[in-house]
Amino acid sequence: MRNLNKYRGIIPAFYACYDYEGNVSREGVWALTEYFVKKGVQGLYVNGSSGECIYQSVEDRKLILEQVVNAAQGKLTIIAHVACNNTKDSMELASHAEKLGVDAIAAIPPIYFHLPEHAIARYWNDISSAAPNTDFVIYNIPQLAGVALTLPLFARMRENPRVIGVKNSSMPVQDIQMFLQEAGEDYVVFNGPDEQFISGRVMGAQGGIGGTYGAMPELFLKMDELVRVGDLDQARQIQFAVNEIIYKMCSAHGNLYAVIKAILKRNEGLELGSVRAPLAPLTEEDGKVVEEAAAMIRAAKENYL
After folding, report:
1. What is the mean pLDDT of residues 207-212?
2. 139 flagged as catalytic
């Protein structure tokens, strides 16, 4: 049986960090990585949706991952999302990630064209072949990718010994049970939707990877602790507070990750820039949303920690 302990717990999705000209900020990446180390999270999920991966070049993504690995200094589990919408670039990123010594690589299925399952399996296995000594995580996010991980496709992928589990971002929480029941104890399933974190953990997810964790990692760490000790009433209270914060952040005109970066500037002093076009930057009116959400995070931490 494989040792999957390094994948258990809270693994924030890493945010893209830019300078004022919109280029990748090495300083921002380094500072954000150190912030997560200090907060005590289990690891980082780099260059995924929260990292604006589909709007980044291969070289951007290499640079970001290099800076994260160097700044983390082996203190965090690193999962590198390497999927591009073509196999060649994805394999290049997978090979690069393995050379850096990441713990795992991950990939969504190809988007836009609806490929048959055998083609999706070949895509994932080709990516994995470029990092033959590195664990592989399937990223299931059907609401954005346009295709869902089915049990037959999951069974086919488990023929690859490097596949160790699923980052499950589908909304039905029972999908977590379905994948765990199908695969058994030798695989890990991560809860994806932040709004149902404790539901996913109770259903059996061994850890969580989420896009809002970075704005309030202490609250997710506390929920994870409470689930482990069986205090579900307190965990539920924090989940409700977290969900209200998420709803507030999503009420802005600008993109959610632009809101989160502005919150991190106010609450943590981090300079991470905006978001990359065509994602929508913050408007002047969004300042109120940022201030209110930042205050809600501070209040929740004071109340529950």
Report:
1. 97
2. yes
